[in-house]
């Protein structure tokens, strides 16, 4: 198949941009890439998909996502993190069934695919949500999923005993750590290697030192990557201080710092923490919308970049972002640091596109397969329609993608060589059925949790 007449932003090592460009896909691999006239001359017998007026970029990679939470979109707005967790989200999630988890995963994946995300890192999927269902949703949809199953043995947040988890979410070593190993043995490498199983450790304070050390030892022995929330809010800093550590000195003490670890949020860091991140090769997932909406703070992205830390981008969950659209996340990631630093050159659009593509692939250990458009890599790419009045005119395609486009402009999505979105419509999933199921199940979860009155509109509804 030839995809022709597009502006192709390769994000390859030279960062070249090809006008009137084309991509040849054979099976699941990019077989050739270059000017349309040259490729059409070489492969005249190939079927052609004309994409004039589109910008093709590598498939977007979300390095932080809670698939279960998409079923809870809008149920906990305008709350700070601990209240958000303890009074709303944990209560709602503690009333999930495995069927709810499957419905939420399908809703999340459908939204991600339609807005250009071709690979995601699920951060902390609880046992009660039904991990098999999550894997099945990834398998059926055609997306790539790095799926973190929760690891925990302490049922509270940070150091305050009052911040306790809902009983329905409490797990121990057997269900969490050993359960993850069972799922790794069953699912890792499944669906044409689109599924990878990760450890999804809870935030420090939710995992004992002994369990962290056991997990990190297994991680190194079996090459199972780890993702974990860290230093998101001031309460996290208080926890680290209570055990005589900074965030990264604590992570180092239990073996978490490595190039197989993605640490999420990373807002409240010292200079020494940044040095440890840099020297260890540990990756960071930046989630600016979540951090801003929950008033958690803002990650020190320019300082991390200057130190050579690899930074990916994530939307986080729908209750703290309200969308899984990574294109919208890219715009805020490019803008927010300019406002804080009062430097308009801080974190330019090109850096942000790298975060959402090749940096994300590196964080997931997949940069030899995805993250850029190069011969021999997997055929994962997105065509964004920039013919509309709201996207015209444009001069720099990277600027058009980062500052102007949203997920609603995504026209075609290819994952592993297969078209999963065409003309903006899902090809592997029934969108109407997914939405109806999500609507029904979200209401049932809210009612089981007894939060019907708390999640409704604050203003009078007639």
From TrEMBL:
The keyword Metal-binding applies. SUPFAM superfamilies: Composite domain of metallo-dependent hydrolases (SSF51338), Metallo-dependent hydrolases (SSF51556). Gene3D superfamilies: Metal-dependent hydrolases, Urease, subunit C, domain 1. Keywords: Hydrolase, Metal-binding, Zinc. Pfam families: Amidohydro_1. GO terms for molecular function: deaminase activity; hydrolase activity, acting on carbon-nitrogen (but not peptide) bonds, in cyclic amidines; metal ion binding. This is Amidohydrolase-related domain-containing protein. The lineage of its organism: Eukaryota, Fungi, Dikarya, Ascomycota, Pezizomycotina.
